[in-house]
Specification:
Elements (H helix, E strand, L loop, with lengths): L5 E8 L2 E9 L5 E6 L3 E6 L6 H15 L3 E8 L5 H25 L1
Helix pairs in contact: 1-2
């Protein structure tokens, strides 16, 4: 079984949160923005599906923190299987929950 190293960093821009998620071969595949009152807006570059991750993470964090959240995402692993995609999504969810916990302790 492969290990998937998902990296999630963040930066506050005033009262808004910017999150960058990468894994495997880093790139920018999508951007999503969420506001707890208006929903999620996502864009994925042609041939990319990273918006699945950026959309769910921006929605989750925006809802929990009641602020605008923008997420840039680029995750690429060669020859990934459906089961491994599920593992990557679960790791992204765990990373987002851990980020939320750190933010609540320090912000």
């Amino acid at each position: 079984m492969r290990s998937f190293d998902i990296r999630m960093t963040h930066q506050w821009i005033g009262g808004d949160l910017l999150v960058v998620i990468t894994g495997g071969r880093e790139h920018i595949g999508s951007v999503s923005a969420a506001d707890s009152g208006t929903g999620v807006f996502s864009y994925a570059f042609p041939g990319h599906r990273d918006d699945v991750v950026s959309g769910r993470v921006s929605s989750f964090l925006s809802g929990e923190l009641c602020c605008r959240v923008a997420v840039l995402c680029g995750i690429h692993y060669d020859n990934i299987t459906r089961e491994e995609i599920t593992e990557v999504l679960e790791e992204c969810d765990r990373s987002a929950a851990a980020l939320l916990s750190r933010i609540k302790k320090t912000h």
